[in-house]
């Protein structure tokens, strides 16, 4: 029987509010935010391609990543159609990171440096060195690669299977293209790069940077297919130097070797 109406039925605790235990509920601002687990960065890597630079940069940065490999068509040397499921152009390199799909090696390198670098592989923003860094990052694909690609295309035209009566004409056209445009452009651009490397051995300032990674492919291609290797001592030294870097070698082990001839 309840007495005085202030107590609760038997078996129920009756504590004065002043003595009741309190449950601590942190204010929303003090609670740690829920963090969903980020998916690992993925590199869609085409064999024998410029995506090797992206693997190398990730090794230099120490960023965990997975590699999905694709093989070229042995006849056309084009990327397989599966890559179009990742990016409409079906080309490589392409990366996926935190829900973003990013293509073009220059854009990828800028993104990775901005997100993951701690100041080791790019100069500070707003400095003259950063301007030079951005210049070489875009020069690699915008100026250095076109004559190298034309050199490769002209060589393949001259040796491609075709009716015997068309072969002399094709070879003549390819030869004139190289003599009139490709070779002079190669000499101009590779001489320019060779002079830039003569100052410090790197493209930006005194230290290795991500711009050197971006410039690595055209410089390696120049040594393999330009026919000017003997006239480019600083480019040759640069290529030898980057190939000795542990991160470069790890990227080759994971991505596989590539040929440039």
UniProtKB/TrEMBL annotation:
<dbReference type="InterPro" id="IPR004045">
    <property type="entry name" value="Glutathione_S-Trfase_N"/>
</dbReference>
<dbReference type="GO" id="GO:0005737">
    <property type="term" value="C:cytoplasm"/>
</dbReference>
<feature type="domain" description="GST C-terminal">
    <location>
        <begin position="126"/>
        <end position="259"/>
    </location>
</feature>
<dbReference type="Pfam" id="PF14497">
    <property type="entry name" value="GST_C_3"/>
</dbReference>
<keyword id="KW-0808">Transferase</keyword>
<dbReference type="GO" id="GO:0004364">
    <property type="term" value="F:glutathione transferase activity"/>
</dbReference>
<dbReference type="InterPro" id="IPR004046">
    <property type="entry name" value="GST_C"/>
</dbReference>
<dbReference type="GO" id="GO:0004601">
    <property type="term" value="F:peroxidase activity"/>
</dbReference>
<dbReference type="Pfam" id="PF13409">
    <property type="entry name" value="GST_N_2"/>
</dbReference>
<dbReference type="InterPro" id="IPR010987">
    <property type="entry name" value="Glutathione-S-Trfase_C-like"/>
</dbReference>
<dbReference type="InterPro" id="IPR040079">
    <property type="entry name" value="Glutathione_S-Trfase"/>
</dbReference>
<dbReference type="InterPro" id="IPR036249">
    <property type="entry name" value="Thioredoxin-like_sf"/>
</dbReference>
<feature type="domain" description="GST N-terminal">
    <location>
        <begin position="38"/>
        <end position="120"/>
    </location>
</feature>
<dbReference type="InterPro" id="IPR036282">
    <property type="entry name" value="Glutathione-S-Trfase_C_sf"/>
</dbReference>
<protein>
    <recommendedName>
        <fullName>glutathione transferase</fullName>
        <ecNumber>2.5.1.18</ecNumber>
    </recommendedName>
</protein>
<comment type="similarity">
    <text>Belongs to the GST superfamily.</text>
</comment>
